[in-house]
Write a structure and sequence with these properties.
Number of strands: 0
Structural class: mainly alpha
Oligomer: single chain
Length: about 150
């Protein structure tokens, strides 16, 4: 009886240990080691800086606005995924980077403003000068019905 009890307890311990090891192995396979998130953040930031630098060098306002928008989307997703604190601890001042990217967007949008009357209206709304456009939501405003 004692031998049978020890076999059951031993089997349960082995089963629990194997389950734990499998769970740990799956977690490592899904998340990688601790260096992987740091490496992923560094890679993401490098790509953000590349797009931001490209936007600062672009002569075409369409291409420059595209590069600046890509950089800002990547920065937003990075801060959303790892958190603003983790992104800030990476060694890059994300606030300054965001300001630089927004300045590039504004510079290219101003160049395009002369070409597109709709963009002229949108920029006027951003400055608080224009009338409301149908379906356009100003930051802090309520979304239109059905949006």
């Amino acid at each position: 009886m004692l031998k049978g009890t020890l076999l059951v307890l031993g089997g349960a311990a082995i089963g629990a240990g194997a389950t734990y090891l499998i769970a740990v192995r799956r977690k490592v396979a899904l998340l990688g080691d601790a260096a992987l998130p740091r490496q992923a953040v560094a890679t993401h930031l490098r790509q953000i800086r590349r797009y931001a630098f490209a936007a600062s060098q672009d002569n075409s306002p369409v291409v420059g606005l595209t590069h600046a928008s890509y950089a800002l989307v990547l920065l937003d997703t990075l801060e959303e995924i790892v958190g603003k604190e983790t992104a800030a601890r990476s060694g890059v001042d994300t606030g300054k980077l965001r300001d630089f990217i927004a300045a590039q967007q504004d510079r290219h949008a101003e160049a395009l403003e002369r070409c597109d009357p709709h963009l002229q209206q949108v920029r006027a709304i951003e400055r608080g000068e224009g009338a409301n456009l149908p379906g356009f939501v100003v930051a802090g405003g309520a979304a239109p019905r059905g949006a």
